Every structure is written in structure tokens, then in C-alpha cells.
Amino acid sequence: MNKPQDTEEPLHDRALLLHGYKRNEVLTLSEVQRYGSDSFSDPDYIRLYGMTPPQWYARGVRLLGRTAVECTRDPLADRIGRDVAAVAASLLPQTRCLVVDPFAGSCNTLYWILQHVPRSHGIAFEFDPKVCELTKRNISGLDRAIELIHGDYKSLLDGLDLPLSDAMIVFVAPPWGTALHEVEGLDLRRTEPPITDIITRMGQAYPDHQLLFAIQVYEKVNAESLTDLQTKVDWFTQKTYDLNVPGRNHGILLGTRGWQPR
User: Fold this and answer.
1) Cys-Cys with 192: which of 38, 70, 123, 177 at CB 3.0–4.6 Å?
2) pTM over 0.85
3) 226 lies in a domain?
4) Distance, CA of 94 to CA of 259 (rounded, Å)
């Protein structure tokens, strides 16, 4: 099953290790396809930037083992992008959108959000220097311009010059760590850092802007943490995507601050 960027997936990590793949080494095309076949019965499972593995590999895209495990592949990223765009369509027609990905990984979800949201440009942050270096190369030839910064997203809070007329879309997908419980679901207060804290900090940093949060979640979300999140936004909705077997799907929480969709 998919997890957000930079989120541990122990089962598929073991699959990598069993076949001699290492998390911090660049995979060959055959290794990418073997991983897809062994874990998902699909050699083309790791679709990125609108391309199958042979297509993106031929374009010079390269992934570490950990990124292959952690990335949000095209079918999920595309649907997230479409749903983000559907909500953003309620903004004024001339509104420009800065799309922020604080935990970039492959930048694939950011790529798809930019594909679907008009008048948007992207900025992403990646703390791991090796992932950042590879991803910068990977996205340099794409049809969407993304500024990728090595470092912590909190630097964004120190004075981004964003015109008041512009809106901000924040794709929130921090590492889940131990936040996912099989029975209670994903606890939004226990991700690393807590999703609830990210929403609060971004709202405090940009109190006069229209904010749209796109939070990647599991099919089931811890009820108490969801109630906590609702107190931090003006409007929200939740969607689950039927891409995997029931009970193993991912979804999106869309929440706004400073405005409400029509």
C-alpha cells in the first residue's frame, strides 16, 4: 500500500531487503520493476510524473530504494490533484496559488496538483540531502516548474513574500512513524511532526491568506484527532480512494482557513 512521502512502510522495506535492494542506493530499472512485481504483482507499479518505469527511467529519472517505497504513485497523486483543484476552483478566477510541499520526497503529488490547479506554482522542501539531489535532477526536465529547497519547511515561516491576493495550498504528508494503528486508524497528532501542529503553525504564519490544506491520510482516521483537526480549519471534507482492497486505501482530508468553498 502507498504511504506519503518519507513515511516508513516496514513490509515493503523487508521486500526490498529480501531482494538485495538497499534503501539509500539508486535502483536499476530491473530492480524497480522487480519490486513492483514482487510487492504488487505489477512491474509498472511505480508510475511517476505521468510515466511508467521504463519511460521515466529513459528520461533519466532515478530513485533511491526508500523513495520507491515511500513515493505516492500516479493513480493516487492524480486523484489528489483533481480533488484539490475542484476545491481551489471556488477561489476567485484571477487568484494565483502557491502550492507548498513541506516533505517533498519524489515531488510527484506536488507535480500532479500543479497539473490540475490553474495559475499555480510550486515550492517543496526536502531535508534528506541525497533525496533532494536526486529529486532536483528528476524534476528538472518536467513540464511543471518546482522550486526544491534542501532544508526544513519551517524556513518558509520566516518570511515568505506572498501577496495577499495569492492563496496557498499546502500538501501535508509528513512521516507517519507510529501514528497508524490498525484498529483506531491514523492519529493526526502522532505523525512526525504532528499534522495538527503543521496546520496550526501555517495558519499562524499566514493569518491573512486563503489557505487550503490537502492532508494525505489512511482509510480510517483516529476519531479524536479528526475532531481536533476540525477545530483548526473553517471547512473540511474527507475522501477515500478505492485503489486498493477495502481497508487498505488512502484518502485525502481537504480543509480551508480564511475562506470556505462555494
Assistant:
1) 177
2) yes
3) yes
4) 16
